């Protein structure tokens, strides 16, 4: 086990984070230390303990199918960095050479 | 990458003679709830942009999703109708990706614990039944809609920026995934058609492909047909053609993709696993974004939603409440009403199947109900540009008209006038008959006088008929019908004329 420098670079790419080579060198061992610490859970988690995905033992929390007022469009757009024609304006999605 | 434009495509028949197509379909269906999957925003189609959004579906910090119970019910109903197993316990999962159609940068979906698994749907093409395995039906939320600005004709390629409307983001969706069981474009189309009918019968979606509430992706690969005695070849590399938004597009896109892949394989090239787009105008598919960075969605259980643990009672109640499904209904209509499979297809395509069934229930014979809805009334609806169900005539009215025709009180021509009257708001069929004076005149006095007048008006024709040329009587029948303003039965008139002329 262990996390490689390449894996950290892959995660950074997936997260759209720009990470320098120096940072990769520094981060990989730190993440490795964190993962090893967390992995100690495996020492006590026997086969009879299922993996936990939720902290509270609840199931089937539902809401009825009732429409409620939405935000006014102007308010919905108010926090957007840019808006145009009542829509959220986002930067170019594909690189020009793609 | 090889250029498809330069590729000389074999004919479809030639391609499938040498290669066996292997097709799987993924269909997304928007569920017809009034509110979204995880929040109370309305789901109505066609609202002003971003008028149906809130902190939850915009993914604003601190907001939390809560599952819409109706969406779960609808998804279970679809699973049951597709003969699936319904999971007694399953979770939602986050599908992480960066694309502005989801403001959260993830989509809530299901991953390794789908709600429904292991079902099937039977599809009939030209009298042959094909069973299509259903791998899974899972729940997720729809994404927003993007407008791409600055490029050619709204294409994402070359766009300078994009504008996003999140009204659709968060509308409940199910994704229905088949096994790679389909072997022809016709069966692919028929599967989507049958699935659409099934979901429409369940009443859980309006399944309007043109509005995107049912969308289909087609996975297509080819494998060489084995020579006699050879084992079956393994599956080839597949492509996925996305967002086919009509039945015709499903068939055309699959057909095109089969010939394209055959041409590449013939040239010794390999098929690239990729997403492709179908262009309606050219009928071709083209490569979408290359996925050289293999999709890594880093799915993990959605921490903000509790697991679903549906009880047997919950599922059994939904199973017991399922309506009659299309296949069972077709079998019943064939058995009870004597329709053929072809009749049912025609009636369904004309949008009059429900109306015909109600008309029979109201007293019409099955052939009469079929005839009037499929011909006169479907034509009237088409002329008026409305669905037949919106015509201002009820199945009970139509049934009454067919009864009057069967009883000899109306001819077909008169019945059409009665229909005109009912559609014009002149009342019930009986009121129109009375109001317009449309009943067949059976009273011998008026009819006899008209017959005598017709004979007197054309003595030369009368002489021919007397001489035994019975077919010459036609113009005389016409003259009588004209004198009676159509309110006589042509066969009766012919009989009377022949009798009068001593030729019967």
From TrEMBL, chain A:
Q: Which GO terms describe its biological process?
A: glutaminyl-tRNAGln biosynthesis via transamidation; regulation of translational fidelity; translation
Q: Note whether Protein biosynthesis occurs among the keywords.
A: yes
Q: Name any one Pfam family assigned in the record.
A: GatC
Q: Which reaction does it catalyse?
A: L-glutamyl-tRNA(Gln) + L-glutamine + ATP + H2O = L-glutaminyl-tRNA(Gln) + L-glutamate + ADP + phosphate + H(+); L-aspartyl-tRNA(Asn) + L-glutamine + ATP + H2O = L-asparaginyl-tRNA(Asn) + L-glutamate + ADP + phosphate + 2 H(+)
Keywords recorded for this protein, A-Z = ATP-binding, Ligase, Nucleotide-binding, Protein biosynthesis, Transferase
Return one GO MF term.
ATP binding
Q: What class of enzyme is it?
A: ligase
Q: Does the keyword Nucleotide-binding apply?
A: yes
Question: What InterPro entries does the record point to?
Answer: Asp/Glu-ADT_sf_sub_c, GatC
- The Enzyme Commission number assigned here is 6.3.5.-
Q: How does it assemble?
A: Heterotrimer of A, B and C subunits.
Q: Which family does it belong to?
A: Belongs to the GatC family.
Tell me, in a sentence or two, what this protein's role is: Allows the formation of correctly charged Asn-tRNA(Asn) or Gln-tRNA(Gln) through the transamidation of misacylated Asp-tRNA(Asn) or Glu-tRNA(Gln) in organisms which lack either or both of asparaginyl-tRNA or glutaminyl-tRNA synthetases. The reaction takes place in the presence of glutamine and ATP through an activated phospho-Asp-tRNA(Asn) or phospho-Glu-tRNA(Gln).
Please state what the protein is called.
Answer: Aspartyl/glutamyl-tRNA(Asn/Gln) amidotransferase subunit C
| Native species | Frankia canadensis
Question: Which gene underlies this protein?
Answer: gatC
Automatic annotation (TrEMBL), chain B:
What molecular functions are annotated in GO for this chain? asparaginyl-tRNA synthase (glutamine-hydrolyzing) activity; ATP binding; glutaminyl-tRNA synthase (glutamine-hydrolyzing) activity; transferase activity
The entry's keywords: ATP-binding, Ligase, Nucleotide-binding, Protein biosynthesis, Transferase
Query: What EC number(s) would the UniProt record show?
Result: 6.3.5.-
Catalytic class of the enzyme: ligase
Write down the Pfam families for this protein, in alphabetical order: GatB_N, GatB_Yqey
PROSITE patterns for the chain: GATB
Which HAMAP family does the record cross-reference, listed alphabetically?
GatB
What this protein is called in its record is Aspartyl/glutamyl-tRNA(Asn/Gln) amidotransferase subunit B
Q: Per the UniProt entry, what species is this protein from, by scientific name?
A: Frankia canadensis
Upper lineage ranks? Answer: Bacteria, Bacillati, Actinomycetota, Actinomycetes, Frankiales
Q: Which gene encodes it?
A: gatB
């Amino acid at each position: 086990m262990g996390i490689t420098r390449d894996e950290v670079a892959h995660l950074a790419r997936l997260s759209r984070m720009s990470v320098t080579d120096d940072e990769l060198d520094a981060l990989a061992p730190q993440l490795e230390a964190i993962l090893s610490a967390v992995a100690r859970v495996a020492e006590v988690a026997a086969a009879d303990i299922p993996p936990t995905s939720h902290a509270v033992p609840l199931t089937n929390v539902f809401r009825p199918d009732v429409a409620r007022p939405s935000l006014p469009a102007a308010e919905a757009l108010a926090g957007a960095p840019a808006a145009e024609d009542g829509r959220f304006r986002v930067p170019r999605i594909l690189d020009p050479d793609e | 990458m090889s250029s498809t434009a330069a590729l000389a495509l074999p004919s479809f028949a030639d391609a499938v003679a040498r290669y066996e197509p292997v097709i799987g379909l993924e269909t997304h269906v928007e569920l017809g709830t009034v509110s979204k999957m995880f929040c109370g925003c309305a789901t109505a189609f066609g609202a002003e942009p971003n008028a149906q959004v809130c902190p939850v579906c915009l993914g604003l910090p601190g907001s939390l999703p809560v599952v819409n119970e109706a969406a779960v019910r609808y998804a279970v109903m679809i699973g049951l109708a597709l003969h699936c197993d319904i999971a007694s316990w399953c979770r939602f999962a986050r599908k992480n990706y960066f694309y502005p159609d989801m403001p959260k940068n993830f989509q809530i979906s299901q991953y390794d614990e789908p709600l429904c698994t292991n079902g099937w749907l039977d599809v009939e093409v030209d009298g042959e039944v094909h069973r299509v395995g259903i791998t899974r039906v899972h729940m997720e939320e729809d994404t927003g809609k993007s407008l791409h600005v600055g490029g050619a004709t709204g294409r994402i390629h070359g766009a300078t920026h994009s504008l996003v409307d999140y009204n659709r983001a968060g509308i409940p969706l199910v994704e229905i995934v088949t096994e790679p069981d389909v072997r022809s474009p016709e069966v692919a189309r028929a599967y989507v058609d049958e699935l659409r009918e099934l979901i429409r019968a369940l009443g859980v979606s309006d399944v309007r492909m043109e509005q995107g509430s049912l969308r289909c992706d087609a996975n297509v690969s080819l494998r060489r047909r084995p020579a006699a005695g050879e084992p079956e070849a393994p599956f080839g590399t597949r492509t996925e053609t996305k967002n086919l938004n009509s039945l015709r597009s499903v068939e055309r896109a699959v057909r095109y993709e089969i010939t394209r892949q055959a041409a590449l394989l013939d040239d010794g090239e390999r098929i690239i696993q990729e997403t492709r787009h179908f262009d309606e105008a050219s009928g071709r598919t083209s490569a979408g974004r290359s996925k050289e960075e293999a999709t890594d969605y880093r799915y993990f259980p959605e921490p903000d939603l509790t697991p679903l643990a549906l009880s047997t009672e919950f599922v059994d109640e939904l199973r017991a409440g399922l309506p009659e499904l299309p296949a069972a209904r077709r079998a019943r209509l064939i058995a009870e009403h004597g329709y053929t499979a072809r009749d049912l297809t025609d009636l369904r395509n004309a949008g009059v199947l429900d109306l015909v069934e109600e008309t029979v229930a109201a007293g019409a014979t099955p052939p009469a109900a079929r005839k009037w809805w499929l011909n006169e009334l479907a034509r009237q609806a088409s002329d008026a540009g409305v669905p037949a169900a919106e015509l201002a005539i009820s199945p009970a009215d139509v049934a009454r008209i067919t009864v009057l025709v069967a009883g000899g009180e109306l001819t077909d021509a008169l019945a059409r006038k009665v229909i005109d009257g009912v559609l014009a708001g002149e009342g019930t069929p009986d009121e129109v008959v009375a109001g317009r004076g449309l009943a067949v005149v059976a009273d011998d006095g008026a009819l006899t006088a008209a017959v005598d007048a017709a004979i007197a008006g054309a003595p030369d024709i009368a002489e021919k008929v007397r001489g035994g040329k019975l077919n010459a009587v036609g113009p005389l029948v016409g003259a009588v019908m004209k004198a009676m303003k159509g309110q006589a039965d042509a066969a009766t008139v012919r009989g009377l004329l022949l009798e009068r002329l001593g030729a019967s």
